[in-house]
Amino acid sequence: MFVDQTSLLLALGFAAFALSATLFVTWLAARTERFILIWAVGAGTLMAAFAGFSINAVSNNYVLLWGSNMLLTGGFVVLFSAACLFTERKLPRARIVAVATASAALVTIPFLLGFDALGAIMGNLVNAALLIGTAWEFWRGRSEAPLWVNGIAALYGVTALSFIPCAIMIYLKGPLVLQAPPSGWAEDLNSIMGLVGVTGIGALSLALNQARIARQHRDEANTDPLTGLLNRRAVFERFGATSLGKDTAVLIFDLDHFKSINDKHGHAAGDEALRRFASVLSQRVPPRSAAARIGGEEFLLVVTDTDRDLALAIAEAVRSDFACEILQGPQGGFRGTVSAGLSTGEHHLDTFDNILRRADDALYKAKNSGRNRVSSAAAGGR
């Protein structure tokens, strides 16, 4: 043994405590990412497990060995839950309960039968499986922040592999009843990899949390808070400096008589009308296109990979769908209508501002022609 096992276990316990405390304080600062809180609970459970193993290393207590194994496995179940929540944005409770029940049974039954060596073997194998599952869950969500998430997945995976030699060495030593606490190069390697994993995962988890916060701030800056669509800034940043061609259409929608809706039915009903129209518009947004609220009751839809006829069909569908919506006000239900102006690029170097200007002219034409209709800018901008 080239490193004292008890010292390694104590170091692991302190590292797990530091990770748990750091993650908990990080969660307290914002209380928005619940997976951080669950992560903190899992790290705290691991701390208790490592403390139990360090005591058992000098006392060789049967019940303490079982309890420490259960705490270690329970901590890894909690970390698996945090990974699921990170990837899926909701906690798959049925799956977590099934994983926790199976893990507890596989570890506990051998101890109940008096085979603590077999229990330790099963504990190592179960822990390896849980960590591989955790690595897989993070790897599935790698698109959010590839550098940090791939690093976390790799550390979980490498730590998982370090449990397998422990199981093999316990098996090779013979009887299914331990004569002394498991020790040797495999346990030392497992402890060292655990220490590296806990430390690395702690650092990367903080970076991941900061990356998610930065992305959320960026999304908030580019999103209209009432409708959830892009705002004017976002759509102009995306298309404003881009050369557009004939396969791009710009559609401007303006809710008809919106001021009278606010005056007659109240501003709450007006806000609901805006949200309902945004919902109708979102359902008609083709792939790789963008819908935005650009001010007041005015909305914008930029459609790529299209032509004038298809763009007109989309605008007409949006107009028709919204006309069928029944909006609610203090005096009961009412209907709203929308007018739209449309223009497409005229050549492969047309600018977004030019197309938008022609679409805006077409919108005024639709308004002046009686509203609740779609007007298209003629070729050449006339």
TrEMBL record:
Segments forming domain GGDEF: 246-379
Protein origin, superkingdom: Bacteria
Keywords noted in UniProt: Membrane, Transmembrane, Transmembrane helix
Enzyme class: transferase
Documented EC number(s): 2.7.7.65
PANTHER family (UniProt xref): DIGUANYLATE CYCLASE DGCM-RELATED (PTHR45138:SF9), REGULATORY COMPONENTS OF SENSORY TRANSDUCTION SYSTEM (PTHR45138)
Protein name per the record: diguanylate cyclase
Organism encoding this protein: Paradevosia shaoguanensis
